[in-house]
Amino acid sequence: MPPTATLDANMTELIYPLLGGVLTALVAGPLGSLLLWRRMAYFGDSLAHASLFGVALALMFDLPMGALVVVVCMGAALLLSRLMRDSEHGVDTWLTIMAYAGMSLALLMTASHDEHGGHALEDYLFGNLLNLSSSTIVWMCLGLVVVALLLWRHWTGLVAAAIHEETAAVDGWPVHWLRPLLLLLLAAVVAAGAKVMGVLLISALMVIPAAAARYLARSPAQMARRASVIAVVCMSAAVLVGQPLHLPIAALVVLFALSFLLMSWLLHRWRRQRLDFTSVR
Question: Whole-prediction pTM value?
Fold first, then answer.
């Protein structure tokens, strides 16, 4: 193979994972911030595990896997939005039930399938970022751009409802549809990120950078922006390190994000101690 062809192939292997990962990370920052403000950090895991049911359905009926994963995620988000109004159980109860139900159904349905089914399920469990195709990148880009536009359009209302829903309702925000809107946006990112991070780790891409950004931000908008920056840096570093060394990229993303969280926490503590020392003097 000519050297130029080899170089082009290597660049493609690097650019597609980098582009897909960065697109997902950009949107994951503000959504992760909204999850933390609502104290629903486990929501991403629940949706991700439920999405495996879409993988199993696609395998059984030979249907487009990506489309079915999106449909199942959206349906699970709407169902959770309805169940969260039930006063008999807390949000964490319904999230746990949804996660285990989706994963159990997927495992049972793929157990009777051939070995290809197990391989496809493994791709969604652990991610398959290096196998993203140009068509997948295009659909991911379109979907994530729509999510970003909706976030930008309704950001103030979503933040108000996330911080205190009752107060937001008194202030005139339509919280009755802002909650399902948020869950649908999360479902879209989970469906897109399942092939990037895998369903076991996609929630970490939303939660850990947002948790790190909380120590560095003084406003909701600043926290969302810094969470996106941290997520993009972690994703880029993981792809650039993991691709040539053949290391699991999703795991590297989580470890880089944890490093940011530790540094942010230490910086926050140092600032507080310095402020306390100054006030004592």
Answer: 0.83
- Choose among 200, 189, 230: nearest CA to 213: 230
The Cβ of residue 23 has, within 10 Å, a number of other Cβ atoms equal to 23
97 exposure class (CB count in 10 Å sphere: 0-12, 13-18, 19+): middle
DSSP letter (8 states) at residue 89: S
Residue showing tokens 């993981």: 238
Strands annotated E in the chain: none
Write b or e for each residue in 101-134: b if 16 or more Cβ atoms lie within 10 A of its Cβ, otherwise e.
ebbebbeebbeeeeeebeebbebbbbbbbeebee
Phi, psi of 87 (to 5 degrees): -80, -10
CA distance 47 to 89: 18
For the record, the structure tokens of 194 come out as: 């399942």
Is 226's pLDDT higher than 80?
Answer: yes
